[in-house]
């Protein structure tokens, strides 16, 4: 029997489906209620972020033009901010409704790419300045969906590229920390739902390292993320 393998397009499609299910749950069961269907849908949705983090690591490693990659991620984060705010009824100007979940997860993804670039390519003679800059950038993601944890998880996972087990251990460490904070300050139900990230391990183990034949899939995700938020809004 031939072993099932997944290329990057397959995994991105899984992330898109899981994300849609997750945000649909937000539409029908707002506020992370303890309804069984809501919990089940949100657990499926926990597949999305780790897959996105994984492919940020891959994308940064394989990109031929890091500056264009950073610019694309930055533009994507700006567009997604307004779509995210519209979807969840949040004012586009942050901190009017609190300090948590003020912008989409795309901002931490953008920051993670910037930090990876700074670590490898800039300010070699001024290590203290580099550390301060990276510290500020990581904390700037604190108000976003998945907070600074998304940045820290990506940085840790990138250092362990080609080691799925190592990447998963790093990811679980940061998600567990995020879950503890969420349990006490955000939502106990949300904190428990985070357990669903473990589902990503058997999925990523099937990754064959190939891009896939459909070249437009990358752009489809860039368009689909803000578009589906607008529809939900």
Euclidean distance between termini CA atoms: 45 Å
- Sheet bearing the most strands, described? none
Give the fraction of residues assigned to helices: 55-70%
Succession of helices and strands: HHHHHHHHHHH
Radius of gyration, in Å, reads: 17 Å
- Count every beta strand, where a strand is a DSSP E run of 2 or more residues: 0
Number of helices, where a helix is a run of at least 4 consecutive DSSP H or I residues: 11
**Class by SSE composition:** mainly alpha
The average pLDDT is 93
Strand composition percent = under 5%
Overall shape: globular
Given as residue ranges, the uncertain stretches (5+ residues, pLDDT < 50) are none
Structure characterization notes:
This protein is 69% helix and 0% strand. By secondary structure, the chain is mainly α. The model has no long low-confidence stretch (mean pLDDT 93).
How would you summarize this macromolecular structure in one to three sentences?
The protein is an all-alpha fold and 233 residues long. Helices cover 69% and strands 0% of the residues.
Question: Layout of helices and strands, plus pairs?
Answer:
Blueprint: H1 8-28, H2 36-45, H3 48-62, H4 66-88, H5 106-121, H6 127-140, H7 147-158, H8 164-185, H9 188-193, H10 200-204, H11 217-232
Helix pairs in contact: 1-2, 1-3, 1-11, 3-5, 3-7, 4-5, 4-11, 5-6, 5-7, 7-8
Main traits of this protein?
0% strand, 233 residues, mainly alpha, 69% helix
């Amino acid at each position: 029997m031939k072993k099932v393998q997944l290329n990057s397009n397959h995994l991105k499609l899984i992330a898109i489906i899981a994300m849609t299910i997750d945000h649909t749950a937000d539409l029908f069961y707002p506020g992370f209620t303890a309804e069984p269907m809501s919990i089940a849908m949100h657990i499926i949705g926990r597949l999305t972020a780790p897959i996105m983090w994984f492919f940020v690591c891959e994308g940064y490693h394989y990109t031929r033009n890091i500056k264009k990659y950073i610019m694309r991620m930055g533009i994507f984060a700006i567009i997604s901010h307004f779509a995210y705010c519209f979807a969840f009824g949040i004012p586009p100007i942050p901190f009017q409704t609190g300090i948590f979940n003020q912008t989409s997860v795309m901002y931490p993804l953008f920051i993670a790419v910037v930090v990876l670039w700074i670590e490898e390519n800039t300010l070699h003679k001024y290590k203290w300045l580099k550390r301060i800059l990276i510290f500020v950038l990581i904390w700037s993601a604190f108000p976003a969906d998945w907070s600074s944890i998304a940045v820290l998880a990506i940085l840790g996972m990138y250092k362990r590229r080609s080691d799925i087990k190592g990447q998963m251990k790093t990811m679980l460490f940061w998600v567990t920390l995020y879950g503890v904070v969420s349990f006490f300050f955000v939502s106990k139900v949300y904190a428990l739902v985070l357990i669903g990230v473990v589902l990503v391990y058997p999925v990523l183990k099937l990754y064959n390292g190939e891009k896939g034949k459909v070249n437009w899939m990358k752009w489809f995700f860039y368009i689909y993320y803000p578009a589906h938020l607008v529809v939900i809004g």
